[in-house]
Design a protein that fits this description.
By secondary structure, this protein is mostly helical. The chain is 58% helix and 0% strand.
């Protein structure tokens, strides 16, 4: 069991680099004013070099695979949200760890009330702090 627990973080740095590369290239694509006629393979190569992404790291999603990021304006440059959601999830779980009970009913109620059921009813930063 100890070996399984110790291995759960194996390769996390590698996966984070892959995720971050996809995120940053998505953002860079959406910052361009001249998207017409872009050589996407050359753009990806140049961005990976600019960012210092090790060739062995690869990317979670390459630009030709990113069909959903260009499907409408609502998702434009939004790939980062997946990584951000993982950060928020870890922060929320840390509150349960600090309480000493992953099933703490008071914290679970707050998480439901302020996050899961709130939607856009309040500013997200305030909702998360609450």
């Amino acid at each position: 069991m100890a070996k399984i627990k110790a291995a759960r973080h194996f390769n996390q740095g590698f996966e984070t680099v892959r995720y971050a590369a996809s995120t940053l290239i998505d953002l860079a694509l959406h910052e361009r004013d001249d998207a017409d006629g872009i050589d996407i393979a050359a753009f990806e190569t140049a961005e990976r070099e600019r960012l210092g992404v090790p060739p062995a790291a690869g990317m979670n999603h390459r630009p030709p695979h990113f069909g959903h990021i260009f499907s409408d304006d609502a998702y434009a440059a939004g790939y980062y949200v997946y990584m951000w959601a993982e950060v928020l999830e870890a922060e929320a779980f840390a509150a349960f760890e600090e309480a000493g009970d992953p099933f703490d009913p008071e914290l679970a109620d707050k998480l439901y009330r302020y996050i899961y059921s709130a939607g856009d009813a309040r500013e997200q930063r305030a909702a998360f702090r609450a």
